Here is the input.
Amino acid sequence: MSALDHPGATAPYSPTPSTANLADILERILDKGIVIAGDIKIDLLDIELLTIRLRLFISSVETAKKAGIDWWETDPALSSRAAQSALARENEELRGRVAELEGRPPGTPKRNRAKESA
Amino acid sequence: MTATDVGHPRTGTSGGGAMATCVFAVLRTGGRQAPALTPGHAGGGAVGLLPLPGGDLQAVVQDVPAADFTQEALRRRLGDPLELERCARAHHAVITAAAAGGAVVPLPLATLFTASGRASAALADRRDRILDVLDRVEGRAEWAVKVHVAQHAPAPPAADGKDPAAAPGRPGAGAAYLARVRGRERDRQARHEALLRVAGRVHEAAAAHAVAAVRRTPHGTAITGKDRPQVLNAAFLVDDSRATDLVAAVRALGGAHAGLDVHVEVSGPWVPYSFTSLGEEP
Here is the structure.
């Protein structure tokens, strides 16, 4: 993940924009405060909410790793697709668990009274 | 969190709508090399250089559709993982490319002005502070150091309750259980202290080669994985001539130490995001 692993590329700032880890980028950008030093203002409360949501986003993407999805090891960049497949997988697990709790085999359709919550 | 990518027209058609001036970074004029320019935010005009009053500073700016950068629009866009990634990478790419032209002061994501004249005036007001920060980061870069420790506790005997002597129901089982719990708590404490020592050692080794350091809150195990706690998440401002020394010094601390499997992760050089505050971020 370090630029030094590729000593050929000693451009001024090497974690090249296309490959730098998104979490690393966000961490730096968020620490600078998102928005707004200019004259188009966003009120502070919103910025805080935004920050919290962004941090949640980082966490939720990285749960993919816990779930054993292998892109994490092979591709250090947090790709959006990976985030979505992690979400899909999580949804799948949750559906399975709901099915268990409702006493039907996973994969069978819910009865009508079961409220759709996905 | 769900990825909502429905219904919103793509940013793009800058056809006719009001534009705002987005400022990415400020740097000196007359560097060894012209700053490189990348496309910037989707839907905006070309990224360009805006000379600032005084002639020795320039801002990296882009006209962007104002409608994409209102409070509502930003909240929606940055709450959408795909849009967030696009925005963050565009921002980072512009700043990183501009740094080819010399030291830069990166501004916060989506620093917006109603017109380039406004941007120029506002930055002129901060001129002294900007020059100070540029002096401070000239010839230096940010390096990030993270330390993770793999958890393979040296198999404490009977830690999992399989000690046959302590089978439930046998006399003394309760006392043995409590003793085990206390022992585990002691081990946990000792491990915790060992982890802090490792973090401290790596931080010191890096700081010895740096002119400034910031320590961020380590990521929780929800992020890093339960078996791989992060014990150090730091950034260092380093003279370019000392970067290889720093990297070598912290890497030398990776490996097995006192029963801990220490992983040191170094990344850089980064534009010194963490050391270029103009003192007015929220």
